[in-house]
Specification:
Blueprint lengths: L14 E4 L3 E4 L3 E2 L15 H13 L4 E3 L8 H10 L7 E6 L1 E5 L2 E4 L3 H15 L4 E6 L8 H13 L3 E7 L3 H8 L4 E7 L8 H9 L3 E5 L10 H10 L3 H12 L12 H8 L8 H9 L9
C-alpha cells in the first residue's frame, strides 16, 4: 500500500489477505448492477456506470467483483473501459458458471469446456493476462462438481488464474473443492436479515478463507426493525448499519455492495468508517431476524 492510501475511505474498514499474497481493503465493490435492467445489456446511463467505477477506486476500493454473465459481458467491458490500465494493487475477481439468454434468465453451464472458453473471454474483456481470483459462479447440477473445480485447478496451473474461489456453495462443496485446489474465497448470499450461511462463514473464518456476502443489504427488502432503530438514532442509512454489522460480524467478511450510482457508492463506502457501539452490536446480536421467505 502506497503512502497515504491507508487514509482513503474504504481503507477505514481494515484489510484482508486472500491466498497469502493479495491484501485488499475490506470494503469492496460488486459490479453486477452497472449493467441494464434484469442484469441484461448496457446500463441506461453508461457515463454514470463508468463514473461509479472510477469513483470507487478514488475512494480506496481495490477489490471489484464481477462475472461474465453480468450483461452478459457488459460489466467486464465497462470495468476495463473505466479503469484499464489498472492501478497497482487493484484486484478484479470474475466468475463463470451461468449463461444468459435474456433479462433475468440464468442457465447453468459449469462444464469444463465452457469454463475454459469463459476464462479466455474474461481475460480479453478485462484486458488481463491473469485473473487474480476466478470463481465458480454456481455448481451445475448436470456436471460433476469435481470436474468443474479440476478445470479451475488446471487453469491455475497454466497461469491464467492466481487463486480459485467458489460461489453459491455448501460446506460440502467447499471441503470437496479444497481437496483439489486451495480455495481463497466463498461468495454466498448473506446479510444481517438473512443468515442461512452463518455456519459456512464461521468455517471460512476458521480456515483463513475470505467470505464475500452477496445481497449484503438483504437485496432491497425492508431493513430489520433493529437496524432501522440504530440507523435513525445515529442518523445514517440502514445500508451503512447493515454493512457495519457485516464488517464486525467476522474479520473474514469482505462486503461487496453494488450500485450504479456514485451517490449510493459514497454512502456504502462510508460504512467503512462507521462503528457500531458494543451495546448496538449486542442488541443486533440478540435479535433473531425473520427469514426473508417468511415475510
Amino acid at each position: 500500500m502506497s503512502a497515504g492510501t491507508e487514509t482513503l475511505p474504504a481503507a477505514q474498514a481494515g484489510t484482508i489477505t486472500l491466498g497469502g499474497d493479495l491484501t485488499v481493503n475490506r470494503l469492496g465493490f460488486g459490479a453486477m448492477r452497472i449493467t441494464g435492467k434484469g442484469i441484461w445489456g448496457p446500463p441506461a446511463d453508461r457515463g454514470a456506470a463508468l463514473a461509479t467505477l472510477r469513483r470507487a477506486v478514488e475512494l480506496g476500493v481495490n477489490f471489484i467483483d464481477t462475472a461474465d454473465s453480468y450483461g452478459p459481458e457488459v460489466s467486464e467491458e465497462l470495468i476495463a473501459e473505466a479503469l484499464a490500465p489498472y492501478p497497482a494493487g487493484l484486484v478484479i475477481t470474475t466468475k463463470a458458471g451461468w449463461v444468459r439468454h435474456g433479462p433475468g434468465v440464468w442457465q447453468h453451464n459449469a462444464s469444463p469446456a465452457h469454463i475454459e472458453e469463459a476464462i479466455e473471454g474474461s481475460l480479453k474483456r478485462l484486458r488481463l493476462e491473469r485473473i487474480d481470483v476466478y470463481q465458480l459462479h454456481v455448481p451445475d447440477p448436470a456436471v460433476s462438481f469435481d470436474a468443474s473445480v479440476e478445470t479451475l485447478a488446471r487453469l491455475r496451473e497454466q497461469g491464467k488464474i492466481r487463486h480459485v474461489g467458489l460461489s453459491n456453495v455448501t460446506l460440502e462443496h467447499v471441503e470437496r473443492a479444497r481437496r483439489i485446489v486451495p480455495i481463497v474465497s466463498v461468495q454466498n448470499r448473506y446479510s444481517y436479515s438473512d443468515r442461512e450461511w452463518d455456519y459456512l462463514l464461521d468455517y471460512c473464518e476458521a480456515n483463513g478463507i475470505a467470505f464475500l456476502p452477496w445481497g449484503p443489504m438483504a437485496q432491497g427488502r425492508k431493513a430489520n426493525d433493529a437496524v432501522e432503530k440504530i440507523a435513525l438514532a445515529r442518523q445514517v442509512s440502514t445500508a451503512v448499519v447493515s454493512l457495519a454489522w457485516l464488517l464486525r460480524r467476522s474479520r473474514a467478511v469482505l462486503p461487496i455492495p453494488g450500485t450504479g450510482s456514485v451517490k449510493h457508492l459514497e454512502e456504502n463506502v462510508g460504512a467503512a468508517a462507521f462503528r457500531l457501539t458494543d451495546a448496538e452490536f449486542a442488541e443486533l446480536g440478540a435479535v433473531v431476524p425473520i427469514p426473508y421467505w417468511l415475510r
